[in-house]
Amino acid sequence: MYVTFDDTLVTGNEMIDSQHREWIDRINQLMKSCETEKEKQSAVRMLDYMADYADFHFAEEEKLQREIGYPGLEEHLKKHEEFRNTVKELHEMLEEEEGPSDGFVKAVEENVMKWLTYHIQSFDRSVAEYRYMRDNSEML
Ligand SMILES: [Fe+2]
Fold first, then answer.
1. 56-91 in b/e burial notation, b at 16+ Cβ within 10 A?
2. What is the model's pTM?
3. Model confidence over 50-62: pLDDT tens digits?
4. CA of 119 to the centre of ligand 1 (A)
5. Which site in 55, 69, 104, 132 is 20 to 30 Å from 39, CA atoms measured?
């Protein structure tokens, strides 16, 4: 299973959208490594590669939310923290296994892919909408 960046994932904020594309690309690379190489060290490397970008992206998104005084910041921060915990759990799973198992792939599908799709469609979209409304009301 791979994630496709389609219209349902567009928030309308250019920075957020382009970062989501890169993040999704890295998630797909992780999945590809699990399917084709099935090798522990490369799965660990690809998980790190994906998680590094998630961290960078979260920092950028959180900065934007502070700049615009987004009222849902605290709740949003909790969601990002939840994802960081998921990454820790995925690392632990890989440590205990010989290589990326079906269980690991399922966990990525559930806790990374589905999580991110929902997160973008609800939490990130609401940030982009708030920003848009704020910018446009200032022009009136
Ligand atoms: Fe977010």
1. ebbeebbebbeeeebeeeeebeebbeebeebbeebe
2. 0.94
3. 999 999 999 999 9
4. 6
5. 55
Distance 138 CA to ligand 1 centre (A): 24
Residue 97 CA to ligand 1 centre (angstroms):
30
CB atoms within 10 A of CB 127: 21
**C-alpha 37 to ligand 1 mean position (Å):** 30
What's the gap in Å between 120 CA and the centre of ligand 1? 7
pLDDT of 138 over the 80 cut:
no
How far, in Å, are 13, 37, 51, 75, 100 from residue 107 at the CA level?
A: 29, 18, 15, 23, 11
CA–centroid distance, 124 to ligand 1, in Å, is 5
Largest Cα separation within the chain, whole Å, is: 61
Ligand 1 centroid, distance to 87 Cα (angstroms): 15
Q: What is the pLDDT of residues 63-111, one digit of tens each?
A: 999 999 999 999 999 999 999 999 999 999 999 999 899 999 999 999 9
